[in-house]
Amino acid sequence: MGGVRELAVSFVVPGPCGVAVRDRLKHLTPQDENVLRAVGAHQGALASRDLKARCADGLEHGADSWALRKRDLTPLSSSRIAGAITKATHDQWALARRCQAAHMKTLAAGMKTLRHRLSLPVGEKGTKRAAGGYRSKGEWFRKSRRLAALEARHAAVVADRQAGRVRVVRGGRRLLNTRHHLAEARLTEEQWRQRWEAERWFIAADGESGKRFGNETIRVTPDGEVSIRLPAPLAHLANAGHGRYVLASRIAFAHRGVEWADRIEANRAVAYRIHLDTGRGRWYLTASWQRPVVKTIPLEAARARGMIGVDTNADHFAAYRLDRHGNPVGHPHRFPYDLSGSAGHRDAQIRHALTRLINWAVRAGVAAIGIEDLDFTAEKTREKHGRRKRFRQLVSGIPTGKLKARLVSMAAEHGLSVVAVDPAYTSLWGAQHWQKPLTTSHRTMSRHDAAGIAIGRRALGHPVRDGVSPARTQLRAWGRTAPPPHDRSDRAGHRTAQAGPGARGREGTRPPTTDRPPGEPSPNGTRKREPSASNTVRDAPSTQQWVQDSLMRTG
Predict the structure, then answer these.
(1) Is the confidence at residue 478, as pLDDT, over 70?
(2) Rounded to the nearest 5 degrees, what angle is found at the Cα of 165, between the Cα atoms of 164 and 168?
(3) What is the pTM of this model?
(4) How many CB atoms lie within 10 A of CB 457?
């Protein structure tokens, strides 16, 4: 294949297994807010203590140590709250381990690139597939020191992983480091302290099927009443029986409200979380529950009605519809979005663009959307794109993980499947084989539009670089291949393939040429066309006689 790497097999992405909805807690009294702050601070301190104990256990943690931690927390809260805290701690530790493995992978990729470039002579040119040597001896020396630093960091991370040590910050490491850069963050120390404390609070409870309204700790009734089971040290703050505190606010989920109501009326498990947005000064309640596992449809069923190939870019989705044979249908579609600003603004832009994409897919009547299985872990390193800082920022700004999760969740609501394909060479081959042929006076094709066709063909199981679809292959079998060039010369010959004698729709046999006079009907009723006058100079008969002048002869 001339150095082309082996492509991964396309697959149908599994559907979502959970749902989360959120509503604002309005009209809270000062006493309500004081109780929520007290509960969050108390349970947050317990969660911090439990996380410290879990990190100290390392790889020696087991079911016995988990049960011991839960028994220690139960007298200070309740059995259900202790279970929710220990489960959240376990999930946070597991996430830290996955991030640690990803960090090791990034360091290893950087070390590999540095070693390759340091092994080359200074000033050696690179290729499209591999970087060359460094430009000067000074740069070579600085990169050799960079390699030594990465090797030291990699060795430290490997040692931590083997020992089971992780670095976890409740509240977030980024917010913790913001404390040293308050002027750049445009925050006062008091504002930062409020955000830090709010992020470390813990007001959450897991659902329980069979219990009243699906949750005993944080209970929400069908009419929107919210009550909290207070921990034992704060039981004196209760305003209802059984150590419960009823909030003055009422909630009503506008999104998926009917589905949520059906669950709580059937006493099915629903998990709740209460948090404070310090920037807006608003309290929110988030409800989440699991859905039955939906069996993923076979890949052939997803390809039955065609595909929409989507190329993900830094500012838009480039989508193209293809039929089941891999032939482009209609015109390209582009769905722009803006990834600048806050995280909430970026998320809203992604959701709006995906909504328009999915609505178009539903109108087109396809069953699946093809998208690249993107992972820019190796593309974000300084060692691979050191001088291309804007490109690194561009790649880092594409929310690949959140994008895939959003698309799968939203597409499942409309009965659409998502097919993930290998992203290798889609832009290159798409521009090479599809951009120019599809560009017309009424249709402008970009490189990204052509990449969408390449992604869709790969999702359908067709090769990207071969522009011959099964429909065109059938036309070849019928003798309908491309004719010679329009200039009528013999440089390309006749049709590249001819149909056999028994093929359907083959070209008929031409009538034999006879010596009958022009215009006289043939035996089968056809007439021989009279010769037409020539329209070109080269076809006209020449009447000039070339003679040689005797004066031009030399002896």
Answers:
(1) no
(2) 130
(3) 0.72
(4) 31
